[in-house]
Write a structure and sequence with these properties.
By secondary structure, the protein is an alpha/beta fold. Helix content is about 35%, strand content about 25%. The chain is built from nine helices and ten strands. The longest helix has 18 residues.
Length: about 280
């Protein structure tokens, strides 16, 4: 069901990109009601719209039917937060959010894979942690940029959904204090833009706890866009650029699903989210 909904969302995004006539910096869509195409609980859909409505990066919204699906289109601007995010030496990628419904689908996949805790590393405005929280998972939203954490706290206050924003450098953070049992770490940043360094640093901290190691999952956002692989062979693009990290750390790929993100709005191939676990 989750994979089918992901494919339906990719199709919706492709249709939306063909018909969208606006000029906003970022844009995305969320269906207005539950359907066979998007079998999402009604109150969860309301909460996804609430996240967008309460998030100041979106300055406009309107209803539009896209591919026979009644939707609300959200338009926004992340320039201010993008500039702030690149000013941090500990930041591994500028703020480029996944789409809200994409965040919900990957959180749903995490729950389906029986993870009980979500740690979103480089969490931006906290949308993945927010979605995991409404799915009754324990969440930690870790972000180094103070302005983005303040944005998360504002969203927490206005939506009444506390997804636990934390302002910290994820590489230096003490994960042992959180009493993790069956966690999945969402690693923010493409491997080609420093995400591999971030992932390696966090894995190094985690593997020292051998009892916990067998229960830890790591989810990577990849890309197959050739602009990130100049002059490389096709095998270097496997697993969205994460092949070397996966093999080096003896990770097993559980699932891969493709979903829309801000950076793939005008691209034919969307972002692969690769769910892995230690062997």
């Amino acid at each position: 069901m989750i994979e089918k909904m992901a494919k339906n969302f990719v199709n919706l995004k492709q249709e939306f990109s063909n018909v969208y006539k606006g000029s906003s910096h970022i844009q995305e869509v969320i269906p207005l009601s539950k359907s066979d195409t998007f079998p999402i609980e009604g109150n969860h859909l309301e909460m996804l719209h609430s996240f967008a409505d309460k998030n100041p990066i979106y300055y406009n919204s309107f209803e539009q039917t896209i591919g026979n699906i009644p939707c609300r289109v959200y338009e926004g601007d992340i320039n201010q937060y993008w500039l702030n995010s690149i000013s941090h030496g500990a930041s591994y990628q500028p703020f480029y959010p996944t789409w809200i419904l994409s965040a919900y689908i990957i959180s749903l996949m995490a729950k389906n894979l029986e993870f009980t805790q979500v740690l979103d590393i480089g969490s931006g405005d906290g949308r993945i942690a927010y979605c995991a929280k409404i799915l009754d998972l324990q969440t930690y939203s870790i972000e180094v940029d103070e302005s983005l954490v303040e944005l998360q706290k504002l969203i927490t206050f206005t939506t009444k959904i506390d997804f636990n924003p934390i302002c910290a450098d994820a590489v230096e953070f003490d994960y042992s204090e959180k009493k993790l049992v069956h966690p999945v770490f969402f690693i923010g940043g493409l491997a080609q833009m420093g995400g591999d360094i971030l992932a390696s640093s966090i894995i190094e901290k985690l593997v020292s706890n051998t009892d916990l190691k067998k229960n830890i999952g790591l989810t990577f956002a990849g890309t197959y866009s050739k602009k990130y692989f100049p002059g490389t062979q096709s095998e270097d693009m496997s697993e969205g650029g994460w092949k070397s990290i996966i093999e080096k750390n003896d990770l097993r790929v559980l699932k891969t699903i493709f979903l829309p993100t801000v950076w793939t709005f005008d691209q034919p191939i969307d972002t692969p989210y690769i769910f892995t676990k230690f062997n």
